[in-house]
Amino acid sequence: MPGIDRRTLLGSIALGVLAAARAAPVSAEPLRPMGSRPAGAPDGLLTRLPPVGRRVALTVDDGVSSEVVAAFAQFCRDTGTRLTFFVNGVNASWTDNARVLRPMVEAGQIQLGNHTWSHPYLTRIGERDIAEQISRNARFLVDTYGVDGAPYFRPPFGRHTVASDRIATDLGYRTITRWSEQVGDFKPLTERELVDGAAKAFKPGNIVLAHANLPTITRCYGRLADLILERRLQTVTLDDVFG
């Protein structure tokens, strides 16, 4: 796995999974069966989860690096972590890793949301271009993964307007999804800085923003898995919570 100390990663993960099996978080709310989920995600802006249990929604944007997306896929396979990717289809990573990711998408462990085709500032382009950005990415998601990511749309850079919200809603993306906290890896960080950012962000009720762009996070997976375990957090996709 490029960019990862595989022995350190798998050793940390194995210890974490074993500990979790021996001492499951007593305060974590079990995932609801499909037929008993809430009515659905909210219309408008979503920034955090309802205050129930010790759930945390890990959301990962962009996918500039195929190697980092592959590493996230392995992390999910090895630890059972549930997360939501917000995809830019222009990035080859989502095609390169589709064979590995799609089974986890189909199983519901990994969820995909729409993040536009090529990550422009929506405040700097016209309404027709906004619609094409969202629609083209939706077509890519359907063709590649069999889902369109609706109703979750994350505007690039978190920048959106009344007009862009209306266009997204008209295209089926009625939940404009931002975040409560972020790891901070939109820019280069040291491993210590990244883990410190995760320690601040990994708390019950948070929708956490991270990115699949820079390799530093791939060297921190063991410590991130430990944070989840130590805090008795239950990782969830957005669909786990809202159906």
From TrEMBL:
Key word Metal-binding present: yes
Superkingdom of origin organism: Bacteria
Does this UniProt record's set of keywords contain Cytoplasm? no
Pfam families, per database record: Polysacc_deac_1
Which residue intervals define the domain NodB homology in the entry? 54-236
Task: Fetch the CDD domains from UniProt.
Answer: CE4_NodB_like_6s_7s (cd10917)
The record's keywords, sorted A to Z, are: Hydrolase, Metal-binding
What is the protein named? Polysaccharide deacetylase family protein
